[in-house]
UniProtKB/TrEMBL annotation:
The keyword ATP-binding applies. This is Chemotaxis protein CheA. It comes from Hymenobacter daecheongensis DSM 21074. It comes from the Bacteria. One of its GO terms (cellular component) is cytoplasm. One of its GO terms (biological process) is chemotaxis. It catalyses: ATP + protein L-histidine = ADP + protein N-phospho-L-histidine. Gene3D superfamilies: Histidine kinase CheA-like, homodimeric domain, Histidine kinase-like ATPase, C-terminal domain, HPT domain, SH3 Domains. Its EC number is 2.7.13.3. PANTHER family: CHEMOTAXIS PROTEIN CHEA, SENSOR HISTIDINE KINASE CHEA. Residues 401-543 form the CheW-like domain. InterPro entries: Bact_Chemotaxis_CheA, CheA-like_dim, CheA-like_homodim_sf, CheW-like_dom_sf, CheW-lke_dom, HATPase_C_sf, HATPase_dom, His_kinase_dom.
Length: 546
């Protein structure tokens, strides 16, 4: 596996070689027509980018030469110099030198000494004549020893990778069917071929998924300006800390969460962090702190937005939830802090006292939640009053292939994404009890509502769920504990099957209108398997419970 440093060097080399080709082309255009402003502007831009990239990678000598060249092209743009006379061979020589330096980086060699070139560039800046050497005098002549090189990297449109991943998904489905058939037939040669096909498609799948990965820094690094602008508008002093820029995630996932992350950051500044005066009165530093971080969490990526602001007043949220009719006063009193904070994600729920350009803590969080749900991810919130708040986005690294738990219900196979699967247990009826018409089980010191999944699915058509009764339960009950929006729910199923990676396909019309299912997958047996949507199931239970 490549190291991050090697990956970054390859990316630098790919861009640097493109810059070198662009320099060579545009300087030739400028030599033909010294008034060509487009070629001049491109030369200035390319030098500026190469300077920044070289310095960022630690290639100070490349950065220094590019900076000197950028300065000269800047003087030409401002009409203080003209692209003529002895300036021309020096600039051509500079581009040749940059080409040699870039190739040296690719070969892992020391870059050539550029002191003479840098001295000449400085003379030109000062309006003095450069000291030309023989190679600079003939810099415009073709040398058949000149090396023409292509980059080792190519840029691919995301839609092409999407199409390729879809094809791989189809291949995986057929692979699993072939593997199942080979085991049923029992032919050793067929089984060996199927096993080899399994390994090859596995490698192909992960290679395509790897090609779609990007660093979260490509999004994170856009936030310093956002934070600065919002802080100025809110008259707040905010320090932004970014952690984990090199964590990798599927590019499409990063695209989908962009608006959600922007909303959380704006909210953290606008309504999480206090003004300097208020912070001083609370014994805090006048400057507020905001952290945007990413890290891996098992097979997922955890992105967090943390502020050291006023925190969320749980009791105020509890009161507002009762006022909105989201929960009864009696039930609200028994909810823990996590369950109360979950109300922040209800549509239209707001704790803001007034509407501003920066939406209040709570406004729009339902939209953020829906974006995360669409990815099969989770959104969590933790807060301490007076100390701050952390929003955690738990995201899959890929949206094409997901880990799932397969189970059986009424002789049909179903799947639940592992992202929302907390645990699986088998309980006797005596280990459960009925409270307020709802079946409850004590699992790991938590009281968790339990419902027969068959009854829950049918309640979508038949109205409210009937009051629970243990008399309907015979023998041990297989229960899947799912977790959504800080709410756990136990689903009674007929039988656990297995855990495996699945390729989820969207539902076809008119089944795509049923929001209880997030898609379908095809099992190795050829059987179509519905994938349950845990957020929709949880919302259905809350709406239909007695």
């Amino acid at each position: 596996m490549k190291s991050r440093e090697q990956e970054y060097r390859e990316i630098f080399m790919a861009e640097a070689l493109e810059y070198y080709d662009a320099m060579s082309r545009h300087i030739s255009e400028l030599e033909k027509d010294p008034t060509d402003e487009q070629a001049l502007n491109e030369l200035f831009r390319v030098m500026h980018n190469l300077k920044a990239n070289g310095r960022a990678m630690g290639y100070a000598d490349i950065g220094e030469v590019a900076h000197g060249m950028e300065t000269i092209f800047g003087l030409i743009r401002s009409k203080e110099r003209t692209f003529s006379g002895s300036l021309v061979p020096v600039m051509f020589s500079g581009i040749d030198t940059l080409g040699r330096m870039i190739r040296a980086v690719g070969d892992g060699e020391e870059t050539a000494d550029a002191s003479v070139l840098l001295a000449n560039l400085e003379r030109l800046v000062q309006g003095e004549e450069p000291i030309l050497e023989d190679d600079e005098q003939s810099a415009t002549d073709e040398d058949a020893t000149r090396k023409l090189e292509l980059s080792d990297l190519v840029y691919i449109q995301i839609k092409k990778l999407d199409h390729l991943l879809n094809l791989v998904g189809e291949l995986i489905i057929d692979r699993d069917r072939i593997l199942t058939l080979s085991q049923e037939i029992g032919n050793p040669a067929l089984q060996s071929t199927a096993a080899h096909l399994f390994r090859i498609t596995d490698d192909l799948q992960y290679s395509v998924m790897d090609a779609r990965l990007v660093n979260v820094g490509s999004l994170f690094n856009k936030f310093p300006r956002v934070v600065r602008d919002v802080a100025v508008a809110e008259r707040k002093d905010v320090e932004l800390v970014i952690v984990g820029q090199d964590i990798q995630i599927d590019r499409n996932i990063l695209q989908i969460i962009t608006d959600a992350l922007l909303h959380l950051v704006r909210n953290a500044i606008g309504h999480g962090l206090e003004t300097p005066d208020v912070r001083r009165q609370a014994g805090k530093p006048a400057q507020g702190h905001l952290t945007l971080s990413a890290q891996t969490e098992r097979d997922d990526v955890l992105i967090q937005v943390t502020d050291d602001g006023r925190g969320i007043d749980v009791e105020s949220v509890r009161k507002k939830a009762v006022e909105r009719g989201l929960v009864t006063a009696e039930a609200a009193r028994n909810l823990d802090a996590g369950a109360v904070r979950a109300f922040l994600f209800e549509p239209g729920f707001s704790m803001a006292k007034e509407v501003t350009d920066i939406s209040g803590r709570g406004v729009g969080l339902d939209v953020v939640k829906l974006a995360i749900d669409s990815l099969g991810g989770q959104l969590r919130v933790e807060s301490v009053l007076g100390q701050g708040t952390t929003f955690s986005l738990v995201l899959p690294t890929s949206i094409a292939v997901k880990g799932a738990l397969l189970f059986e219900l009424a002789s049909r196979s179903y799947a639940i994404p592992l992202m929302h699967t907390d645990s699986v247990v088998s309980l006797w009826p005596d280990e459960m009890h009925v409270v307020g018409g709802v079946l409850m089980a004590r699992i790991l010191n938590e009281n968790i509502p339990v419902i027969n999944l068959h009854d829950l699915l049918h309640s979508a058509e038949d109205g409210l769920l009937a009051a629970a009764s243990k008399s309907d339960l015979m023998g041990r009950q297989d229960i899947i504990i799912v977790n959504y929006n800080n709410r756990k729910l136990g689903l009674i199923v007929d039988r656990f099957l297995r855990q495996q990676d699945i390729v989820i396909k969207p539902m076809s019309k008119p089944l795509d209108q049923i929001d209880l299912f997030g898609g379908v997958t095809l099992l190795g047996s050829g059987q179509v398997c519905l994938v349950l949507d845990v957020p929709a199931l949880t919302r259905l239970f809350l709406a239909k419970r007695p």
